[in-house]
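A.,

Following up on our hallway conversation. Structure tokens first:
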């Protein structure tokens, strides 16, 4: 990185602070909600043995501008059964917020609002060591305690990294995104010292890079790993997909080569006519079904599985699928696949044994005769033409969804069994409204815009 380019990067980073750092009004809004929340929690927990702790980005002052959310963990002694923890956790959560909805992670928790600020009230066990966690969320208070002092003075560096990632669609460890979690961002900033140093290191990340936070070493391993300083057996980057790692690395390279403020601003796509035109001239198919009411991570895990199984099915039949994608909105699930061919020939050529393999030749010929087929020899091997059972992609997809609905997973499979729609080409525009995220998802799938993380 030349001195001139580095000066440019520093200048861009200064401007980016205006995008990622909360303004005074947002900070005051958070403080007011925090004060009210603490008063309510103190009253609700006055006579019991349950404690509370503020954790997460608000507690550490690392939240992104316009992304204010307060996380409160209710710490239950280990004597409580999980059912008691869940029941009491929900009761307390409902009592301390203005309005609420139930959400689900390791167990149910309250997502609510206090003075217009989003709040999560999550029950967990109060443990002496992270080695003895009972539920997945029990580890979070230990993460907070490890981070809170080490991240001081670097809060805005964390915000810069989060903003850089969010603009490229790479922020969030949930399965829908499979990107960088907030915890991972804070660890990387602590390890490398600043946003720019993370980006400089990031351009050289490899799929086998191992970053050991506690020891301060960068090693090689089987896959990209950031060792959890709280639990050395855990990989903080476990949910980061290989493709998103690649997108991050390229995003770092591009930014360092040509620093620009646009790397901190999400770029939208707004050409539905081009998408419709492209759909009309290519072999793209969209399987649509009702969205099952399950936790989002479970939904996207099943969408990944079902999409992959469908892709493999079309590949086995010879339709040469090229790419697949999936997403969901508030009501529907969509699985897209594009193939090289729309229809196949009436017959297909099946390979038999080489002529030297007498035993298998005999079996092959007997099977052919029993089916009324006429085998032939070519290049020293027996072959036979067989009638294709499925000759077009639409039939192949419909039959797979009808007969193999279980391949889509427990909940999504039931939704497919209960009913699905299949649209092809330009008709997809009648199924999916081409705007906002849906438009961008399809445009990216078709290769009409750069992949996530790139700036044109």
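Then the amino acids I'd put at each of the 456 positions:
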């Amino acid at each position: 990185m030349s001195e001139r380019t580095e000066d440019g990067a520093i200048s861009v980073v200064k401007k980016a602070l205006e995008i990622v750092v909360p303004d005074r009004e947002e900070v005051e809004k958070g403080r007011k909600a925090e004060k009210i929340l603490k008063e309510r929690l103190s009253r609700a927990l006055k006579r019991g043995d349950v404690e509370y702790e503020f954790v997460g980005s608000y507690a550490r002052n690392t939240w992104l501008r316009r992304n204010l959310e307060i996380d409160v963990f209710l710490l239950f002694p280990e004597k409580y059964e999980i059912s008691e923890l869940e029941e009491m956790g929900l009761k307390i959560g409902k009592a301390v917020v203005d309005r609420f909805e139930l959400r689900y992670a390791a167990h149910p928790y309250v997502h609510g609002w206090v003075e217009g600020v989003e709040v999560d009230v999550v029950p967990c066990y109060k443990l002496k060591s992270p080695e003895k966690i009972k539920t997945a969320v029990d580890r979070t208070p230990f993460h907070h305690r490890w981070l809170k002092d080490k991240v001081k003075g670097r809060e805005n560096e964390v915000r810069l990294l989060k903003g850089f990632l969010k603009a490229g669609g790479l922020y969030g460890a949930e399965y829908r995104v499979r990107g960088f979690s907030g915890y991972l961002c804070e660890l990387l900033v602590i390890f490398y010292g600043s946003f720019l140093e993370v980006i400089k290191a990031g351009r050289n990340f490899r799929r086998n890079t191992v970053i050991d936070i506690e020891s301060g070493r960068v090693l090689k391993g089987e896959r990209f790993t950031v060792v959890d300083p709280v639990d050395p057996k855990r990989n903080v980057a476990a949910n980061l997909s290989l493709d998103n790692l690649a997108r991050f690395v390229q995003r770092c390279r591009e930014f360092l080569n040509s620093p620009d403020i646009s790397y901190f601003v999400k770029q939208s796509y707004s050409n539905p006519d081009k998408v419709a035109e492209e759909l009309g001239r290519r072999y793209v198919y969209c399987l649509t079904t009702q969205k099952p009411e399950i936790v989002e991570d479970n939904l996207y895990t099943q969408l990944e599985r079902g999409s992959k199984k469908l892709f493999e099915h079309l590949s086995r039949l010879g339709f040469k699928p090229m790419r697949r994608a999936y997403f969901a909105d508030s009501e529907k699930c969509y699985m897209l696949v594009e193939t090289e061919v729309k229809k196949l020939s009436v017959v297909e050529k099946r390979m038999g044994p080489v002529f030297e393999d007498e035993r298998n030749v005999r079996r092959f010929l007997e099977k052919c005769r029993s089916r009324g087929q006429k085998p032939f020899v070519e290049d020293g091997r027996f072959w036979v033409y067989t009638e294709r059972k499925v000759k077009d992609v639409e039939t192949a997809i419909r039959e797979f969804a009808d007969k193999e609905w279980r391949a889509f997973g427990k909940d999504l499979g039931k939704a497919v069994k209960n009913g699905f729609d299949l649209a092809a080409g330009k008709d997809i525009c009648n199924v999916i409204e081409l705007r906002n995220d849906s438009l961008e998802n399809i445009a990216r799938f078709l290769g009409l815009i750069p992949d996530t993380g790139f700036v044109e």
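The longest strand covers residues 117-125. Curious whether your intuition agrees with the design.

B.
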